[in-house]
Known about the structure:
This protein has one helix and 19 strands. By secondary structure, it is mainly beta.
Amino acid sequence: MKLGKTIKKLSAMIMALAMIFSLVGFCGNDITAKAASNPVKLYSSEITFCKYGMTKYDVYIQVDANSATNKKVYVHHTTYDQGWIDTEATYCGRTGSNTEIWKASVSVMGETDYAIKYVGDGVTYWDNNNGQNYEAANTLGTATVKAIPRREQGYIQALVKNLAYNKTVKVRYTEDNWATYKEANLTYSYAIANANAECWATTISVSNPSNFQYCISYTVNGKTYWDNNFGANYNHLFYRAY
């Protein structure tokens, strides 16, 4: 009889332990799921100058607008003489009611790697490209289409995510503050290696550079995406030097 009672007690203890470990497992999964929700991601980046060993690039960063009250956003990048440093980003605009875009301009000598650092209400979050970091380059993160302004007046270039083979990329532009506008098709230039993205370009005639503005549309799978510089459009001030 004592042996039977002992076995029953042991069985009860084993069942209790199993229930405890089961609860711990569920709690662990729940914590992991919450941690996986990252409020900061790379939106896009573009090289603005690359010459004489100097590289300048702009990094656009997507932040969850509801993630914190007090926000600080940085590009955490390498330098040739100081190791890793932070360059602070400034608020740029919105792509939706819940999404903010921040922009940082980085200047370095030589090659550079970077990650995105976001401090929201004292909590630090990272986007380090799944541990691989990012390189200074023309890159699409969460953006679907992004203009890459160039120095050559009238030369229009854009990056698009390769969402389907059939696609249309256009530039819409004005020289009279949008009283009238014209459109021109961009054509495929080249693919971005290991990024599922493509570069498209065209050249248009600009007769009034001081009043010239443009934006990019990208139509694919029955949907049209726009890059209008977060509502400001692009103009002659956005031409870059390479």
